[in-house]
Design a protein that fits this description.
two-stranded antiparallel sheet, 60% helix, mainly alpha, 4 helices, single chain, 148 residues
Amino acid sequence: MAPAAGARCAKHADAAAVDVCQRCGTFICGECVHIRAEDEFCADCALILDRPAPTRPKVAFGLAVAPLPLGVALTLSAGTVGTLVGLALLLPLIASALALILQERAARQRGQAPLTGRFYPLTWVMIALDLLATAGLVGFVLRAAAHR
């Protein structure tokens, strides 16, 4: 995106802006422009984009995926007792996944983590599925207890 006529570089007030950072919107001069994948960025945003992808979303995704098959297997193999054991094991995994993904969200909002990556949205989906499955398991235990 081209800057408005008369716009000045945010770091070099004596230099005319030649572009706008695609991430933060800062005016940048020819000396400050950093090109990544055919887009222009300021130095600060280029540093963020050059960082290796954070591992939090991947770990959170792994923690969010684990409860579903584990809970189903325990419920099918051991009934009510297995469900109770499953809930005791699943809830800490889900809580850990949620804590990690919330940390990642905060880092993204502060500009300390890239805004891209497929594990971030997938983890939110898995946490939602985990919570639905947990509600189903609790319902299973309550129904089983009511029939005794």
